[in-house]
Amino acid sequence: MNIALDAMGGDHAPEAIVAGAVEAARIYGVTVSLVGQPNVIEAELKKHDTKGLNLPIVPASQVIAMDEKPAAAVRAKPDSSMVVGCKMVKRNEAQAFVSAGNTGGVLAAGILHVGRIKGILRPALIGPFPTLRGVCLILDIGANADVRPEHIQQFAIMGSIYAREVIGIEKPRVRILSNGEEAGKGNQLVIESYKLLEQTPSILFEGNIESKEIPTGLADVVVTDGFTGNIFVKTAETTARLMTQVITEEIKKSPLAMLGALLARRSLQRVRERMDDSHYGGAVLLGLSSLVIVAHGRSNALAIRHAIRVAKQAIEQDVLTKIQRGIAALESQKAAVPDESISI
């Protein structure tokens, strides 16, 4: 199994990226192809014990920076680590591509150079969100700002398959993000999508969900448009960081509180681990003909390792083939329904 990794992408590249690749190659026994500038990668590899590990270097002379315009950069830099990595999976030289670089750049490179699964209308970015019951998968979280109800329906099918095959949830509960739990609440997109989701037999659709209910674990898969999903996730991340900072500041103001924190150190560490998204790996761009994983820009070595783990699991479970079958079944179902608009 060969997983291509963008060694140049991310806030902590190349140090954290290479370190995560070394960890993944050792723990999971996979080949991790490091895509990027050879001299830079070689210098980082020398810092680690790589004996017996498969860590080939794939040259790419250009880098797409975090602040560049995605589509323009992908076209202007054909020898960038992102483009080279995507072309590797397109040519079946690797089974997945992982990058912590410019998210828009990864999306653009994936769509332009990898292409969609037959029948997929829009690829969607699916990411994990911690809940009281474990994790909830949310899609789309940024690939498509504007969508139609049929796109939401496909998101639900892809999300259910991913939750079942990669996360291990036997019967994923699917809900659509809205401003009210009752049927009929929401904008036109939500109302029309709700009707389609009710008519999709391959998913377990349980209705609307409000944003405040997602952390309780009421759903395993939440579908929405990329604009709304991205805002929800980023707001939640920022709120969590704010709470952590405020708690830390208040504890430091009191010696007694600092003593209490010291006594509760192990419990506080477990809380941090439950909230740490590094253990969840990256977000997957579902709907492409090859696996593309988008890790967080601030990913450390642990996050990169887990992003590679996510790729490995998706490959082993043959997620792409199962998504293709799920979409084909949906198309067959639609074809079997007579068009009521045709009068006889």
TrEMBL record:
It is found in: Cytoplasm. It catalyses: a fatty acyl-[ACP] + phosphate = an acyl phosphate + holo-[ACP]. This is Phosphate acyltransferase. Belongs to the PlsX family. GO terms for cellular component: cytoplasm. It holds the Pfam family FA_synthesis. Its EC number is 2.3.1.274. Keywords: Acyltransferase, Cytoplasm, Lipid biosynthesis, Lipid metabolism, Phospholipid biosynthesis, Phospholipid metabolism, Transferase. It comes from Caldilinea aerophila. One of its GO terms (molecular function) is phosphate:acyl-[acyl carrier protein] acyltransferase activity.
